[in-house]
Amino acid sequence: MCGDVPRVCPTAAERRARPRGRKAKDTIGAARESLARMIGAPARDVLFTSGGTESNNLVIHSVVKHFHENQTSKRDAVECHSHVEGAKPHFITSTVEHDSIRLPLEQLVKEQVAAVTFVPVSKVSGRAEADDILAAVRTTTSLVTIMLANNETGVIMPIPEISHRIKALNQRRAAAGLPPVLVHTDAAQALGKRRVDVEDLGVDFLTIVGHKFYGPRIGALYVRGLGELTPLYPMLFGGGQERNFRPGTENTPMIAGLGKAAELVAQNCEAYAAHMRDVRDYLEERLEAEFDKRIHLNSQFPGAERLPNTCNFSIWGPQLQGHVVLAQCRTLLASVGAACHSDQGDQPSPVLLSCGIPFDVARNAIRLSVGRSTSRAEVDLAVQDLKQAVAQLEGQAS
To answer: In terms of pLDDT, which residue wins out, 173 or 334?
Structure first.
């Protein structure tokens, strides 16, 4: 008997809901396991977020907060220069990062909350080189954040080398009483196109973006030894979901979709990559055959590895700015740089300029990406579409 105390016993509806609630919880747990397998991580170190922008901001926010808490706790240790009164955390990143890294860091500088060094990429390799990253480290350096692969050129950054050298540096910093430098990589562009393993990369944080590997538009964040080895501070406060690190009612259907997408990547990544590389290489061969010396392949850098799906090129000609050519295409849909910057008009990509691509070449850039199902026949159609667009524009100009 429940007696007269109201709502001590569950209602019939509540009893029916419990198995469904457990099923939702199990679905979320299975998806977390799938994501963890995809990146070679323990499931307990994976948090679900709304997407890459939130994941990146969460890392930056946490590092700032951790620096100031650490500074407060060691304020009396005057011999430790990183904890002098008024010190600010120092971040190191590259000049080709996504806006969800660049803009938060620029805002912190504007607010005088942090200091940031934007390390130029090599104009030879298109990469952020480890020597340049290490040379930028200060006593107050708290985080190095370098993307795993660039979204416009496809160039893969030397994250394992950077992490290895930061780890060696941290041993010397510990002996000097300095806090460790943490390493973050935004792996959005690389996932689903190459093998990604957090142990090989050696990172403390890794950003996951679902729609980049055919999943829903949500994301996740890997944190090595979440809350124990590596600090993380919530930006939101609410119902305690995701162990209070990222509260808010879980979007179970989207999480389930993300888990399934990760499962497919874990099972088929090598086959996906091989197909994309074959079709991308064929695309570049066809472009060179049609446009000969007028084509410039902007994503090919000597000695640099790149993603198998990315082709960034320019067709030389005074009337052939990338956005103008694409506007004349009948079927081809593409972008002149990052897809989220499609409104930049005839302004050349800052990423390409940073990589040493000349202004007039960068202004004509077009980025094409091939996918898991892209065929050679579709490549032929795309190249013919570009050919007719160029002919039409040059005919109008003559």
So the answer is: 173
